Amino acid sequence: MMNMYGKELKFPEDLYYSEEFIWVKDLGGNKVQIGISDLGVKAVKELAHVKIDAKVGDQISKGKPIGHVETSKGIWEIIAPVYGTVMEINPPLTNGNAYPIQMDPYGKGWVMEVEISDENEVKALKKGSDESTKAWINEKVEENVPLMDDDDDDD
Predict the structure, then answer these.
(1) pTM of the entire structure?
(2) pLDDT of the residue at 8
(3) First vs last Cα of the chain: how many Å apart?
């Protein structure tokens, strides 16, 4: 799937996704890594600055803000997709650097690692490999990111 800027939109099937475009990767042992999905990044075009409000050792609550990003379209809150304890914050993000999220949202752009008390929370999110999740992603992409039509190609 390509957006109008010719950039591929990626949605790894081994990840889980929240309604707020946050991804969750199960690291095993009740630990997860979370970040902003490619859809979240591409929907705002450009991330200028990131501020993580949660600190290592903090309890985070599902549905509550854990930080925000300043974008070309304004301020966008990063909403916790799970309950848990913050174990680590991605070091480049602690000084406000949003570049890793912009360039590699599923790799170097992870936001934090969290220890959860109930692994069923992750399973309650949208699994990337599920057909219903793929349909949801397609719907959200159409709502949030201008896509290229096949007719837009130069002949």
Answers:
(1) 0.84
(2) 65
(3) 20
